[in-house]
Design a protein that fits this description.
The complex is a heterodimer of chains A (about 260) and B (about 325).
Chain A (H helix, E strand, L loop, with lengths): L5 H17 L1 H23 L11 H32 L2 H5 L5 H30 L7 H25 L3 H18 L11 H7 L3 H14 L6 H25 L6
Helix pairs in contact in A: 1-5, 2-3, 2-5, 3-5, 3-6, 3-7, 3-9, 5-6, 6-9, 6-10, 9-10
Chain B lengths: L2 E11 L5 E11 L3 E5 L6 H9 L6 E6 L2 E2 L4 H6 L1 E4 L11 H11 L6 H10 L15 H13 L5 E5 L7 H16 L3 E5 L3 H7 L2 E6 L2 E7 H8 L1 E8 L15 E3 L5 E7 L2 H17 L4 E8 L2 H14 L2
Helix pairs in contact in B: 3-5
Classes of the chains: A mainly alpha (about 260), B alpha/beta (about 325).
Chain lengths: ~260, ~325
Amino acid sequence: MSALNVHAMRVIYFAELGRSIRTLFQSLAAPVISTSLYFIVFGSAIGSRMQTVDGVPYGAFIVPGLIMMTILTESTSNASFGIYLPRFTGTIYEVLSAPVSIVETLVGYVGAAATKSVVLGMVIMATARLFVPYEIVHPFATAAFLILTSLTFSLFGFILGCWADGFEKLQVVPLLILSPLAFLGGTFYSIRMLPAPWHTVTLFNPIVYLVNGFRWAFYGKADVAVWVSLGMTVIFMLVCIAIIAWIFKTGYRLRT
Amino acid sequence: MDAILSIRGLEKTYAGGFQALKGIDLDIRRGEIFALLGPNGAGKTTMIGAVCGLVRPTGGTITVDGHDTIRDYRASRAKVGLVPQEPATDMFITVWNTVEFSRGLFGKAPNKKHLDQVLRDLSLWDKRNNKIATLSGGMKRRVLIAKALAHEPDLLFLDEPTAGVDVELRRDMWEMVRKLRERGTTIILTTHYIEEAEEMADRIGVIDKGRIILVEEKHALMKTLGRAELRVELKAPLDGLPPELSAWPLSLSDDGLVLTLTMSGEADEEDASAAAFIKRLAAENIDFKSIDMKRSSLEDIFVSLVGNNHERP
């Protein structure tokens, strides 16, 4: 019996989605409200005093960045919580003693977290449309970047959830690492607006590539070439998968 | 022997250097109830964890129904059900959803009929739509058992299933264990309540300090290691053991008022021998005030085994 355990994928995936539905308010309403606040503050209040960026009105310019920022933090915290919670309560024993491999576990946990992020991304896109009238130039690329980013950061969150040994650590990474990187990653500005040394420094921030890839998909222009964005995102995803493979191989923090 | 579980040279040394299992060899027969006894920290839970995939062995092999638990883990794990010692369940979903989850997790297609039956057997049917958080501690235990049975395992581990549960649940649980055995499920249980092992098990294994120190049929164990003592309190003190009774394995208390007869063997042999002794006392005109007979339990045997082992260097 070496075939994949499809029933296990099904039940983990739907159990995880079920958890999101039970906490629908936190899952959807909270990010939508905070994103709306960003639009009101940056888009309407400040944006009305700003010029266009690369020919895109400022309010529309920040849409892809804001969606990306929310997707990154929500994917990470959802996926990390999804695997950390059973570790914390002890219910993980059942998954660890079940006939499942890395594939079923990732499809179930990461798949559910990514699904939720994609839905969230679409909800925010729709919400943003209420504030700013934007048009999407490359809808397929938009969908692809949305899915790819959701998956990649759900993988990252899974690693975080395996590594964390307390609720503080679960909070620390999104708050102290992801949020600053997202703010500094050209979410609210074009990195070309930055003075010389900072522009180069920013290129080491992986989030720059995500935001710019997404922005290219929206408006057909960005600070870095789209294939560089795509390549960097895929590399980050492969690194996450490699780390998770190592976690499964060694049983790190899962099996004793 | 048709073994459903074979453990050979199983070793586990934890990262900190503690050696929890020091070369376990054990075969579990298909369809039996096997009680694994041992003091706290003897390695019971580690051994169960190694079979179920929770603990990574550092040596040895385990096969479940012929499937290696490392190389062929999908096949071996699908056959095993585990009721863990620590009650841990997802609090916010319903009883029905959690057993459905467990069944799918172990690779089985949904089967409402089987799950209905499991819930009925465990008196959980009325609670099937309740959230687990709203259940009492005993009910949560039942849920754990239902989860372990959801995928129809051939081999069921019950790790301290009756620790901290009330009389009713214990009785239901043993009733269920009997039913499972009738259907051919093999059951391995650990328990602190040795009288339960004595009542339920076909075979007894004793583990101590990471080693199996004894595996024996329960009846044979009781026969070879069981003792019975007949204590007779006399009306008048004796100066010494009467020579007429020298054929009996007797001892006399210092004050000469208590005769103690020590017997071993099957219970009915002991009874016959006690009855014969009483008749003989009457025939010898030795009058007595009271008679008390005490048979050693599995617990006494267990304490003597583990106690001796602890004294060894």
